[in-house]
Design a protein that fits this description.
334 residues; mainly beta; 17-stranded antiparallel sheet; 26 strands; disordered N terminus; disordered C terminus
């Protein structure tokens, strides 16, 4: 039994060493950054290296800085020593379960399986604009059970089993996806469950959808266009709405005790820009027979014992577009 344990121990040591050997074999390391346990976290190179991966030999960035190039690590590592990301010296074709895509930057799971792929990873500045970067952006064709489309993308995110987890679209791009609620317009991106069913989308414009408590308008004016992982309209696996974000719907609630409450988006002074207003959206989540409202405060109600009335208020959105110059007839700050 003891020889077997020693053999297993030797295999474990060899496995660990095989992960840490990637850094040990590098040449031209100019800078390195370490974890608290002293293992290497990131490094910058100035000589050519070939990194063996499941997707072929990849060459990390090592050349001189250019106008377009981000000042990012050439390589990043997990604490175990496994490669976490590679910023590539030049755009390289990577074969993924979804097809072959060019990549400037690739990230990996600790197992070595691809996690994220970025076709472009340029530095947007006054010298290199988003328009300059877009000229390099290719349009890709995708075919899914929920839709087929040609589109420019920022990134693809994969589950460890190789299935697509999310897609982030290039700014200004929009696609149509087929859902249980019908055809819906999508901007920024969408995410999927591991079995390929739609998990969330970011609507291109405000749309009104039927929910367990009435028709609610959904749209997120504050949505960040840098990641399609998490979006304002989320679905359960059966295709029904799990959560919805609204900027213009107001919900009036009458509880079983006869209490009257109102939940709605709130208009507030912009903390970053003087004399301007912003809307704090209302997020509504449906779970089992309950509905949760998340805005200025969070409250949960039983759908079966509560009466809901929905009012879609366009004035709420329009009020936020005005400057806050005259306080004499306004009480929003209060």
């Amino acid at each position: 039994m003891w020889p077997l344990l020693r053999q297993l121990e030797a295999i474990m040591i060899d496995t660990i060493n095989s992960k840490t050997s990637v850094y040990d074999k590098l040449i031209g390391v100019t800078d390195e950054y370490r974890y608290e346990n002293s293992s290497v976290r990131d490094c910058i190179l100035n000589q050519e290296n070939f990194i063996s991966t499941k997707y072929g030999n990849l060459i990390p960035k090592y050349g001189a800085e250019e106008v377009r190039r981000k000042y990012t690590p050439s390589l990043s590592f997990y604490e175990s020593g496994a490669v976490k990301s590679i910023s590539l010296e030049k755009q390289t074709d990577i074969i993924t379960p979804l097809g072959t895509f060019p990549a400037d930057l690739v990230t990996f799971y600790e197992s070595g399986v691809i996690k994220r792929l970025f076709p472009l990873n340029g530095k947007i500045t006054g010298y290199w604009t988003e328009a300059d970067e877009e000229k390099l952006c290719q349009e890709f064709q995708f075919r899914f059970p929920f839709g087929s489309f040609h589109v420019k993308i920022i990134s693809l995110n994969f589950y460890e089993n190789g299935n697509l987890k999310s897609m982030t679209l290039w700014p200004g791009e929009s696609i149509i996806l087929r859902t249980e609620l019908g055809l819906l317009p999508v901007r920024i991106g969408f995410s999927l469950y591991e079995d390929g069913k739609i998990k969330s989308i970011e609507p291109t414009y405000e749309i009104e959808l039927a929910t367990p408590i009435g028709n609610i308008k959904t749209y997120d004016e504050n949505a960040l266009g840098i990641c399609g992982d998490s979006n304002s309209l989320c679905f359960k696996k059966n295709g029904s709405i799990h959560s919805i974000t609204t900027f213009s719907s107001k919900i009036v609630i009458v509880s079983k005790d006869g209490l009257l409450e109102t939940f709605e988006p709130v208009v507030k002074p912009d903390p970053l820009e003087e004399d301007h207003l912003v809307i704090v959206p209302l997020k509504i989540t449906f779970e089992n027979h309950q509905v949760k409202f998340e805005g200025e405060e969070t409250r949960t109600y039983d759908i079966n014992t509560t009466k809901f009335t929905v009012a879609n208020d366009e004035m709420l959105k329009s009020s936020a577009s005005f400057s806050c110059g005259d306080c004499s007839s306004c009480s929003l700050c209060k």
